[in-house]
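The instructor's notes for this session suggest beginning with a concrete chain rather than abstract definitions. Hand out the sequence below and ask the class to guess, before any prediction is shown, which regions might be ordered.
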Amino acid sequence: MSMRRQISTATRWRRRMLFACMLLAWPLAAAAQSADTPADPPMQMDSSAMPGMNHDVKPEANHDAMPTMTNSATATTNTRSPDYSDGIGQSSMPGMDMSDSQPLGMLKIDQLELTDGRYATGQSWDVEGWYGNDSDKLWLRSEGDADHGRIEEGQVEALWSHAVAAFWNTQLGVRQDVGEGPHRQWAAFGIQGLAPYWFELEATGYLGPSGRAAARLRAEYELLFTQRLILQPEFELNLYGSDDPASRVGSGLSDTRLGLRLRYEVSRQFAPYVGIVWIHRNGTTVDYIRLGGQPSMDRQFVAGVRIWF
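After discussion, reveal the predicted structure:
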């Protein structure tokens, strides 16, 4: 029995040794086979299928041959296009790709309304339009009041608008007063733009003959209840440097106006609205206004339409 047990034990050890040798020999054989097989050629990347990749650079080019990120005029022609377009054309949507070489225009009738005050009813308008490019525009605007089709007072301005920042333009031009009063002429200069928190601001100064001077400050804001229902507050100040009895305005702060207009945009280009406007006259202007039978303070209900092209 002991002899048979010894032979059986030796057989098991020989089988274990043979199995271990096979495990060691298998990775060595696989490595030898991979060494004899030629390597696959490196994968070629088609640079033309990747926008922005420079396909003119040779694969063997070293790091020093890569163009540096600089604004120097000596940069090679292999650098990326300055506007990052890489040959992609401009948008086909009119007005969305305006450049200095492509002038565009717009006409906006911001307020065309009927007014109903405590003592009188009438009509009023506020219209502006421009034509030009991103940097320079011809800017036209007009506002005023009428009664039964007769203009009581109004203004027409023609301005050259020049961009000085992303949301700000300086304006320089002329203003003509129209209506029942004297037809004054003014030189106009000011600034217009979009302030932080989306306030639209407009500040304009005026100089006329005989030392006349005036200024106007206007601020607007749009409060969106929905994408179509919008409340637009508007605040305006008018100042004059001297008394002008013929135009019924006094020196200093002449009048202040606060308006609230709620409009519904049937489309972006057409929006009817209703609102209310408070007018408060100050200083010597009150005396001139009372001589004409008008109150120093007035509240007007308005209804109109806003249109732009």
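Then share the key points. The CA atoms of residues 19 and 25 lie 10 Å apart. DSSP finds two helices and 13 strands in the chain.
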